[in-house]
Amino acid sequence: MAEVMNVSTPLESTEVRCQEKTRGGLKYEVILGEPEVKATPPKKETSSKSNLSYEVIEEKLKAAEERRQQIESNKIASLAAKMQKIEEASRKKDEQTTQFISQTKEALDQKMETHTEKREAYITDLKTKLKDHIENVEKTRQSLDLQTEEVRLAMEEKLNSANALRDENIKKMLERLKEHEEQVQKVRASNMTKLQQLETTVQEKLELAQSRREQLEQEQKEKLRNYNNRTSELKQSIESSMEVKKTEAYAQLESKLTAAEQNREKEILRKLEAVKKCNERMVEVKTTVENAEESRKTEKVTKIETKLSIAEQNREKEIQKKLEIAKKYEKRAEAVRQNKANILASKENPSSG
Questions:
Q1: By the 8 A CB rule, do 36 and 11 touch?
Q2: CB 28 within 8 A of CB 14
Q3: Contacts for 188-194: CB closer than 8 Å, 24+ residues apart
Q4: Phi, psi (rounded to 5 degrees) for 37
Q5: At a CB cut-off of 8 Å and minimum separation 6, what does 108 contact?
Q6: How far apart are CA 148 and CA 243, in angstroms?
Q7: Do the beta carbons of residue 12 and residue 36 sit within 8 Å?
Q8: How far apart are CA 82 and CA 198, in angstroms?
Q9: Distance between CA 94 and CA 96 in Å, rounded?
């Protein structure tokens, strides 16, 4: 895409065309226009110094002084307007910077509040989950305790029932022995005569029966003693097995609870580390943003100060120029006054001329 710039001077008019030639380069075409014919200014009529009167010179001086004052007042007014514009621009820039800083600060505060709310909600959720886990572990432990208690009660019931059956069997056996003795007595009473006749044989048989009865009683007592020993051994073995199971169950529960507690502590430490890192990152971001804002603010202040200093220098230069122009005008006025005095002196002393 080509750009055309027209530059006109008092002597000639030119046309400059620039066209993109390569990347990063420009091609210029300068076309010279036709020269303009300058009109000859009209010649001023030269008036002789003798025609100038004192009043005309005084009026011209007053008019020149008024024009000079008017020009100076106009320039001072334009300078005041420019300074007011510069002050207004600096004030607007300060307002914009303060508004930008307040908006960024509010946004950061809002982000920090939302982050803290999320973090607190996450921590509360973790606490509730851990509480539920601990409650579940406690429930399982209680259920295991109930199961072990039920097993213990069932074993005790079985042992009691076994003892009751043993007592019943012993009673039945004693009753049978009593019945047997009664029957023997009856038989002995009914067959006394026969027994007396067969005393020798019966005596032998009675001795044999007595020995057999004693042997049977001894065997029954041994059986009862063995049964009692077995039941006591069984009871002890059951109690020892129950104690072993109970200790194993308690040991497993303790190991599980310790493992759960360790895992919970590790998880809490990991979460706390993550939260701490997040807080450190937020602090770093906040400090970087504050540093960036400070650097931007200082850069803007330095730019405004440089602009103000440049404007002050330009104003001083302009005032210096105006003072120089005023000095020139004063020199010219002094020369005019001297010429006027010389003219008056020559008019008063024509003989000297």
A1: yes
A2: no
A3: none
A4: -85, 120
A5: 286, 289
A6: 10
A7: yes
A8: 165
A9: 5
DSSP 3-state assignment of 342?
helix
Token pair for 18: 């620039």
* Residue 178 pLDDT greater than 70, yes or no: yes
Angle at which helix 54-190 crosses helix 199-348, to 10 degrees, equals 180
* Separation of alpha carbons 259 and 300, rounded Å: 61
Cα 210 from Cα 218, distance rounded (Å): 12
Question: Would you state the pLDDT for residue 50?
Answer: 47
Written as one letter, the residue type at 91 is R
Whether residue 202 contacts residue 195, with contact meaning beta carbons closer than 8 Å, is answered with yes
- Amino acid type, 36: E
Average pLDDT, the chain: 78
Q: How far apart are the first and last CA of the chain?
A: 76
Contact 243, 98 (CB under 8 A): no
CA distance linking residue 285 with residue 263, whole number of Å = 33
What's the whole-model pTM score? Answer: 0.24
DSSP codes joined into one string, 25-66: -EEEEEEE-PPPPPPPPPPPPPPPTTT--HHHHHHHHHHHHH
Closest CA to 133 of 268, 276, 270: 268
> Which pLDDT value is given to residue 70?
93
- The tokens for 217 are 């009683």
